[in-house]
Amino acid sequence: MPGRQLIMNFEVTPTSHTLEAYRARGGYETLRKALGMEPAAITKEVTASGLLGHGGAAFPVGRKWGVMKPNPGEIHYLCANADEGEPGTFKDRWVLEHAPHLLVESMLITSYALGVRHAFVYIRGEFDLPFRRIQGAIDEAYAAGLLGAKLFGTEFLLDIVVYRGAGSYVCGEASGLITSIEGRKPYPRNRPPRLTVRGLFQKPTVINNVESLANITGIIRMGAEEFKKVGTPKSPGTQLVSISGHIAKPGVYEVEYGYPWAKFLDEDCGGMLGGAKLKCVVPGGISTKVLTRAEIEPLNLSHESVNPAGSGLGSGGMIAVAEGTCMVRFLQVLLRFYHHESCGQCTPCREGMGWMHRIIDRIVDGKGVPEDIDRLYAISHANDGTTICGMGDAAGYATVGILNKYRDEFEYFIQNKRSKFDGRLECPA
Amino acid sequence: MRHLIPEFEKMKERYPEGFESSLVLPCLRRIQEDRGFVADEDIAGLVEYLGVPRIQVEEVLSYYTMLRRAPIGRFHLQACRNIACSMRGAERTIDKLSRKLGIRPGETTPDGRFTLSVVECLGSCGTAPVVMVNEAYHENMSDEKLDRLIEELK
Questions:
Q1: In sequence order, which ranges of A55-207 are alpha helices (DSSP H)?
Q2: C-alpha torsion sign, points A305, A318, A172, A79
Q3: CA of A286, closest CA in chain B: separation in Å?
Q4: Which of A116, A161, A171, A335 to mutate to probe the B interface, most B CBs <10 Å?
Q5: Could you tell me the residue range of the domain that residue A389 belongs to?
Q6: pLDDT tens digits for A306-348?
Q7: Which of A95, A98, A309, A317 is the most buried (most CB within 10 A)?
Q8: The domain that contains B58 carries what CATH number?
Q9: pTM of the predicted model, to two decimals?
Q10: How many angstroms separate the CA atoms of A104 and A102, rounded?
């Protein structure tokens, strides 16, 4: 087991997601404790815990919350971001399927802290079992008087709506998510104003990733000091890592920050499929830059270790790539995805994604020209920081990350009109 | 869609006041679940019921990939071809499905039984390759599992 566990700390059984099982594990007792605290004291505790957002940007949760001041009569909203769509990422799904009540309890505590009366779970449209599990948990909570009713003799009550998307990557971006809940085409919005100032229907709104919220109950239960004893000083707690690709044991693992990366892959995940050799790793969703085997060797899984290496832990969506995989075809798949998902609002992304996609298709068709490589760089740079949301930048990071390290494969493909590795994406072993 | 209005009213209860506009997407999803697609009369009915501009409903409909304006086959097979699935053989899975059903992605079999689509990441990368059959995920799709699935649905 890669370190201590805070979320995946119970045995998964066919009934472990139910209210009864959750209560038997001490569920909803922290809520009672929280409601005995001052709302501001909860935010203070979360800030003190140093909890970093798990959606990809690692923004401090406490700092986001700190903007919202609960005042009577003022409307605030909370959204749990369950629009898990970053390729390689499937860890929020684990929380929704196996610990839905942990999310509900955490949302209750968060709402109390932030003066929220209505909260939303925005879940991606394709998720079926995760939707039924979280909706089931919410229905159970309503029936038990935990939602929709005043709690424990206080004036606090909360309604939670599960809002289902309908197939769009951009909805995972916080402002796109909000526009989607407003019932419109999910175009992201310019900041400022920040969403915690003007969010859903222009009211202050906190949007937190499912895993970030799932940590709240634990932080309030054990206190910030205890929480900080897990992980490293700069990356407190744990991260849910979903690993896929050419790895022997794919799945979701809860990793304590600071755990050695190579050991995680070689021992916890059983090494590479069929004994293949590791070529590179996508650390946290395809929008983070790939790192080679040699680069990850000295690193551990924490922000302060991975960020200086020129990448990031992102959303925890790790993909292991074996030696013998064609990185040109690899990038082709990524660029096809970004092109498909560009919402079309900003010109650099709308045009740039299509352009990059056409270039990579041309290279794979054997019709590439040597200038294509520099053109991919140029478009990536042109996207960087020129679009409303981060998608244009993300596509650029992914592209530059692969080009920097595997330029020779692109040159080989263009020169010889064929892949150096037979166009292979599947594991060669 | 008119027969669904009592359901929509019930759904509305949990929303804050003034959130009629938010109901566009859930109502469209429910209409599609009911009819299989969203028809012209549904759009008109929804505009009237929610009091939102028609352009808003049309924009939402045309933006989201899961919403459709025309009927499809009884079984909608959606095969993921994003990176994690491709690394586990999704391209072969899609070819095989295409051959077995005699249709290309985006097409429906003449008997109206199957529609084949190719989609981007379904968030099931650890159990790749994955094929969705209507709402259900079918994971770790090996050749044998694929054969069995099509036989069962035929």
A1: 61-66, 92-98, 100-114, 129-143, 174-181
A2: negative
A3: 9
A4: A161
A5: 327-416
A6: 999 999 999 999 999 999 999 999 999 999 999 999 999 999 9
A7: A317
A8: 1.10.10
A9: 0.97
A10: 5
Q: Which of A248, A251, A323 is nearest to A280 (CA)?
A: A323
> Helices A39-49 & A210-222, crossing angle to 10 degrees?
100
Distance CA B24, CA B28 (A): 6
Min Cα separation A143/chain B (Å): 14
Q: What are phi and psi of A417, to 5 degrees?
A: 55, 25
Is A427 contained in some domain? no
Pairwise CA distance, residues A48 & A221, whole Å:
14
d(CA A296, CA A321): 13
Cβ-defined contact of B137 to A128 (cutoff 8 Å): yes
Domain match, B54 and B89 both? no
Provide ipTM, 2 decimals.
Answer: 0.97
For the record, the structure tokens of A191 come out as: 């900041």
- Do A356 and A303 reside in the same domain of the chain? no
Asked if residue B131 lies in contact with residue B78, where contact means CB atoms within 8 angstroms, the answer is yes
Testing the interface with A: which of B24, B47, B56, B63 to mutate, by most A Cβ within 10 A?
A: B63
Q: Cα–Cα distance between A82 and A79 in angstroms, integer?
A: 9
**Residue from A428, A336, A251 nearest B81 by CA:** A336
Q: Per-residue pLDDT tens for A210-237? A: 999 999 999 999 999 999 999 999 999 9
A97 to chain B, closest Cα gap in Å: 13
Instruction: From B63, B87, B116, give the residue that closes a domain.
Output: B63
